[in-house]
Amino acid sequence: MAIYGWLQLVLFVALLFGLAKPVGLYILRVLDAEGKTFLDPLLRSLERLLYRFLGIDPQQEQTWQQYAFSLLVFSLVGCLFTYGVLRLQGILPLNPQHFGPMSPDLAFNTAASFTTNTDWQNYGGESTLSYFSQMVGLVFHNFVSAAAGIGVAAALMRGISRHEAKTVGNFWTDMVRTNLYLLLPLSLLFALFLVSQGVIQTFQPYVPVETLEQTAEGSSPSVQTLAQGPVASQAAIKMLGTNGGGFMNANAAHPYENPTPLSNFLQILAIFLIPSGLTYTLGRMTGNQRHGWAVWSAMALLFLAGLLVAWTAEIAGNPRLHALGVSASGGSMEGKEVRFGIFGSTLFAVVTTDASCGAVNAMHDSLTPLGGLVPLLNIQLGEVIFGGVGAGLYGMLVFVVLTVFLAGLMIGRTPEYLGKKIEAYDIKASVIAVLVPIFSILGFAGWAAVSGWGIAALANRGPHGLSEILYAFSSASGNNGSAFAGLNGNTPWYNMTLGAAMLAGRFFIIVPVLALAGNLARKKRVSDSQGSFPVSDGTFVLLLVATVIIVGALTFFPALSLGPVVEHFIMTGSDRLF
Amino acid sequence: MAGKKQSLFHGGIVARAAVESFKKLHPRSMVKNPVMFVTEVGAFITTLGLVARTDQEPVGFSFQVTLWLWFTVLFANFAEAVAEGRGKAQANELRKTRTQTSARRVEPDGTPLNIPADQLRKGDVVLVSAGEIIPADGEIVEGAATVDESAITGESAPVIREAGGDRSAVTGGTKVLSDSIRVRVTANPGESFLDHMIGLVEGARRQKTPNEIALTILLSALTLIFLVAILSFKLFGLYSNVSFSVTVLVALLVCLIPTTIGGLLSAIGIAGIDRLVQKNVLAMSGRAVEAAGDVDVLLLDKTGTITLGDRQASELLPAAGVRVEELADAAQLASLADETPEGRSIVVLAKQYGLRGRSIAEMPHARFIPFTAQTRMSGIDTDGRRIRKGASDAIREYTDRPFPPEIAAAVEEISQKGGTPLVVSDNDRVLGVVHLKDIVKGGLRDRFERFRAMGIRTVMITGDNRLTAAAIAEEAGVDDFLAEARPEDKLALIRKEQAAGHLVAMTGDGTNDAPALAQADVGVAMNTGTQAAKEAGNMVDLDSNPTKLIEIVEIGKQMLMTRGALTTFSIANDVAKYFAILPAMLVGAFPAIAPLNLMRLGSSGSAILSAVIFNALIIIALIPLALRGVHFRPMSAAVLLRRNLFLYGLGGLVAPFIGIKLIDMLIHGLGLV
């Protein structure tokens, strides 16, 4: 069994590595308002038309404040639009199942969720939403929230590479170009591939089928409704834009969304495709390709470490079940799809939480304690392991700034990052970006853990219940969107708190990151020499990995020790209690 | 005080610091240091708990934890107080020089008036005569005098200070040995360099440097993170039916927040300034010391920094048909009245050719021609002879005929070797050439080599021509040189380097150095220099030794490295503390978690107490390192980083595991818990 896992892993990392450069180079052109791509003959006139329609001068760059303002206004309008669509879906078209309006708190939660690239779903797609709501209200955000994330990363990269500059790019230009030249063509291509694997794409109403099995002896065959819909178009951007919001409630575990091992493998790769490419773009933009690869390597190391821990735990399975006579050879298959197996499910779980994707092809609630700890910790580390499109890179760059500051002093100079002195303002912006998700996760989860509304929604008590609460708020604050499940999130309290956590975890990070970008752009560049802090060697990679782990682990170790950690020890060691 | 090194803890300082550490407990002074303030609040809360007895733990345990929490705060205060005490002790040594109580101020009508020295104001003119002490920093406006500056520099040989020129500045507290001078006061009492310096090491006027501010923000953020982590832990504990006592939660919090670096941060900064004072350098701000660490271009004046101050005559090259003795005789005559070191070295060299020493007094009819910038030669008119020595082109003009070929060749060759050729003539006959040579100081090449490894470029500044400059630059091993430099070229060079993203340090003494000193990121003025130069720079070297620039850079780097090393150490420590405290807190409710107790600590109580004690003692243990600075050797950033990461990162990870285990064994041995 394991040999196929290893083969897949080697292939996965090789593809990830090989695709980083072409994707990164392409993104570099997309992010340049003047950049030329092979799609220019097809799309250039459309791009110009859009600028004219929106009244944008693509050459007119913005300060970080203007960039942030544009982004916030755009997100607010998008959020209200989706809220409106969800509340009014009963009277909107493409609603063959005649679904009624969403409740206000659930609509708020869902609108916030998709605006923030979280795609946390407190609803079952096929049982709640019309095709119009899915395609227009939600998929719209799958594109623009991904593009906004890439835009913020671009602004930060520009800030790092520019000097004595006032501007960090133009939000509207980034938004238009990223969608037009990157996300739409890629999604189209990927959707076609998914259709080839059997993912459906249709506007037909749901299909009732008679099952062969009969519910009772002699009774008529029972009828099952097969949900239909335009799934492929949504599944493609769901992965490529690290959104994660499935068309179906079962997400990527559903055969209509993820039918084959090949579609599974490529969907996982699609999650990391753009985030991995962006590290190459970083190298190009900063003129230090080795630095780009150093960031890539740090991410790859963290990814492999998490995967190996989770995979080992899942293969080992649950000794208590083995003691009951369940075969140990297969590892823990509870909650997993047979067509993906242990590796295909574990890889998906680790990747979807390394990035802020949140699509799932297995029940995270059923993972072993350590197997579940890894996805949880991945989110809590800030989703910087390749991470969400754009969000992962800017999150990681905040850690780079902190790493450089912490260790930079040790070479006997005030810290500098690629020639930029890291000063009080930069540290302030960086620590806010790190503090906000931490406060949001621990604050909301602590509140929920001692409140009636928090506990009532739990399917399990004890350490596992705590993991469920922690996971929910980590996922929301980290804009991941995957659920541990086992927690009924569709209650007014959870809808509101999770929605608030998602908004805080998105915008209270983006604004300080843009401030950091603006401040770095403004600085003079200090020349590079033998005495400069090395940001492209092995020492730096290990240092960055250590900073990410130490900040995350030190922060969440107490909380985790009462959740998955103690659960693990109870599972493995409770037969020798002392 | 010059060059004197005190032992780190000398009795008086320790006793005073111990008292100070209690005074510093006042919240008003604690709040400047967020990390230690949180610790103090924590200690206060556990003290209240001790009185109210709300927790169920044994009182002995709560008492001991509380006690050690207070020790943590006190130890941090003690570190700061010791650093301040050492600085003050040095400042007081300097201050002893200012015991003068009166001064003779020259009134507008020209009459001197005796007034107390502390009534002097900037702009006042005072009269100082032989045997008197100069009452304030100032500039000589009239007269010249020999001054004993040993009180400031430790150098016993008196120096000449005179009005006009670049040696007009005098420092308060130094003593006039001969003659009488009028001095314009340039600093109000309490605003002199010395006062600045004293203020920098004392708490009141000390301001955080930019890097200290940034670091404090980061440390405060870490403190906030742990505060939230611990508060939420209490809530998660309630969910899990585990009740954590306030004492234990505070203990965990204090162990996790970066108290080690938080407690030592200001001591490190003060010690950095202090080390400068030990080298006889006064810094105008802590920021200047920090900037010194960042410098990557050193502008070094050739004269005095790279070469010994003076050129020495090393060789006599006679013209064809002239005996070398004849040349020696003429050269000696021409130099008799030349009191410059070059002139004296010619007299000394001439003696080697069997000439007896002559003195001016023997030649009543001789007329001495002094050197001027216009003629660029000096000499003597005696017995119908007009003997001159000077720059080659000046002599050629003077003799009004071309040099003989062997002389022209000798001049060319000496120039190429970096020397200065002095041509000697008798009437219009050229006798030969004296080779004046720059003597490069020993050990510089090696030092510049190490600086290069750290990415610091050295640039030699000289008024010499390119050929000369290139030869000396080659011999000294500097990276680059600026020849035929005028003061404005220096300024232009600094601007150019800064525009290219470099941070520049330089030394200077003349008034015309002032703009460059002000423009440089680190400008070290020589104490012998003019007041204008001193005001423009951000450091003053009391010994007026330009080579010290190199040491200043090293001290700056060392201070930053110490800060970084202890921050890394402090954060790395947390891992072990978690493994000590968390299992102890949880094992009661979840016995299965026992394997997490990696150190096999004796009991829950002793585990928590050991971590708290280790956390407090590590501050005391690291005070010497904070004051002395981490060991510094110039090497490339990558190597330095690996080395320090290994020492302080890995060391910080491992050390507390061992330390806490040992303390735990001791606690059990003594039966404290």
Number of helices of chain A: 19
Distance between the termini of chain B: 50 Å
Low-confidence stretches of chain A: none
Mean pLDDT of chain A, nearest integer? Answer: 92
Order of helices and strands of chain A: HHEHHHHEHEEHHHHHHHEEHHHHH
The largest interface is:
A-B, 69 and 76 residues
Are there runs of chain B of 5+ residues with pLDDT below 50, and where?
1-6
Provide the number of structural domains of chain A: 1
Number of strands of chain B: 22
Radius of gyration of chain B: 33 Å
The proportion of residues forming helix of chain A, as a percent range, comes to: 55-70%
What is the chains' assembly state? heterodimer
What does this molecule look like?
The complex is a heterodimer of chains A (578) and B (673). Chain A has 578 residues and is mainly α. Chain A contains 19 helices and 6 strands. Chain A is 64% helix and 3% strand. A two-stranded antiparallel sheet of chain A has the order 1-2. In chain A, strands 3-4 form a two-stranded antiparallel ribbon. Chain A has a two-stranded antiparallel sheet with strand order 5-6. Chain A starts with a helix and ends in a 5-residue tail after the last helix. Helix content of chain B is 52%, strand content 17%. The longest helix of chain B is centred in the C-terminal third of the chain and has 39 residues, at 548-586. Chain B is elongated, with a radius of gyration of 33 Å. The two termini of chain B are 50 Å apart. Chains A and B meet through helix 14, helix 15, helix 17 and helix 19 of A and helix 7, helix 10, helix 21 and helix 23 of B.
